[in-house]
Amino acid sequence: MIRLLRYCLSLVCCALLLTGCNLPQVTAEARIFLNLSLDYLGEYSLHQTEFDGTHVGGISAITYDRKRDRIYALSDDRAQPRFYTLNLKLDQGNPERPQIETLAIEAVTFLQNEQAQPYATDRLDPEGLALTPQDTLWVSSEGVSRRQSPPALIEFDLQGQWQQQLTLPQQFLPIPTTEDNPEPPPHGVDDNRGFEALTLNPEGDRIFTAIEAPLQQDYPEAQTEGETQLYNRLLHYWIGEPQPQFLANYLYPLKPADLLKGINGLTELLTVDSGGHFLSLERSYSPITGFRTELFQITTALARDTSKLDPLPDDLTGITPIQKQLLLDLKQLKIPGSNLEGMMWGPPLADGSQSLIVVSDNNFESSQPTQFLLFRLRQDRQLVS
Prior knowledge:
This protein is mainly beta. It contains two helices and 22 strands. The chain has a four-stranded antiparallel sheet. A four-stranded antiparallel sheet has the order 4-5-6-7, with no helix packed on it. Strands 8-9-10-11 form a four-stranded antiparallel sheet, with no helix packed on it. The longest helix has 18 residues, at 2-19. It is globular and about 65 Å long. It starts with a helix and ends with a strand. Mean pLDDT is 89; it is low at 1-21.
């Protein structure tokens, strides 16, 4: 019997060897990414209006409150940093193609500083927003360099009251001017190119934020436009008990710009799962072609911590960056391009799938509505293997 089993096993092995060429070939890249796709469902335009004495516009980030079924939308007004509470209604009469039926403004909440006072003009430039399970909001600020206002990561309650602020690594801050160094070299977050992207993990005890463009000291000394690979930095914090703690930063490979695309930047992150998978939103602008937006799936699974590298060395051998894969180029949708800056996981759809909503910043231009794009996420929850 044992000899027979060994003989049968040898036949099976031979068969596998002979037919191996017909087995599916799985790339290393496929093993680290989720099998994701997006269906575009439609758009909704919120025309600029007035609410409680404010201009509703400049929406740079959104987040969904599932318990209250409401959206919080962050306005990047440096004079009056604030967020709006929105009531979203979906028309799901056609389960195959749900639409945004209405989007009503219900309230506006102004952010307050540590002294429980409204922020002075140009002290905060809010760009990223994320809701915690404890009903607080994390806000990322680009800072305003001309006013010596540094970038910041701040927690507020739902009434806009300051709760706490995270300490940023020195890599992200300017070098102080001293008598011995009256003109320090460029260092830290670039002006108006700071913390745009912000997201929490599903458990709400880790925060991830990224800058829109590379740190000033991370640009290579010699570069050719459109050819040199540039890297942003993505920060990873623990924000659970007993206290917040900085964990790591990783290199995010920013898609190089070219003469037609113009300037390019990372404007948003969104956590997919607890295993290091995210969506990233890159937006470019050119006076020739206008806005262009691309959605990527990224993973930090293999990324190496670069928190001790300041600046980045010319040779990055052995330093594994974040891995990324194009998920959707929005030019394929053939809809008017706009300044897309924020995205969130929205309400569940009638078929049980997850909705994704992407929002534009109209820069307070009365002729430009705030654009909400609705997508359906399709996901095989198992890693491709």
